[in-house]
Amino acid sequence: MSEETSALHESPGERLAARVERRWAAVAVLILLLFVVVAAFAGIHQATMPQARVETINPTRLHLGGEFVETNLGSAVEPDGSVTVRAVGQQYSFTPECMIVPTDTPINFRASTPDVIHGFLIQGTNVNAMLVPGYVSTISVRFDEPGDHLMPCQEFCGVGHEGMWAKVRVIDKADFMNMAETKPRLTCVE
Ligand code: CUA
Cis omega (within 30 of 0) on the bond before 96? Predict the structure, then answer.
């Protein structure tokens, strides 16, 4: 039976059903096209707009002077009461390898790397960033509970990648502030 003769034998109900079905198929295709347009716009928009702020640093001179010299690493209390933690990730360790922060305080991590890309991930939080040579990564976070968080490097950085990790220790705010009175830079490295 050809299509034409079969169409002749369709009941009005069947014709209506076919029309509705075609309409919904068209709607489905339109929705898919809308998704494609949205995804394309988001991708192109992000690729063409520079990030809101980018901080660069000379990776070859990181340890020689400036913000990321070893004596300046660790946690520091800022005049506004927030805490800045400066850290460096390099093949295959973080410095400091144990970072200490208080509870209920805005914490700003500032970190960079002199060699290759490393991961900066704090387990149990949504902190998950990359350390890229030539750039300063800044991550803001707040901890409600005291406790230890592991910080495994989550970007493959070479043969020692598996063994590259640090720790973030969250302690009671009052204890932290007491410690900070005697030392300008705090770590929990024993
Ligand atoms: Cu550093 Cu993987």
Answer: yes
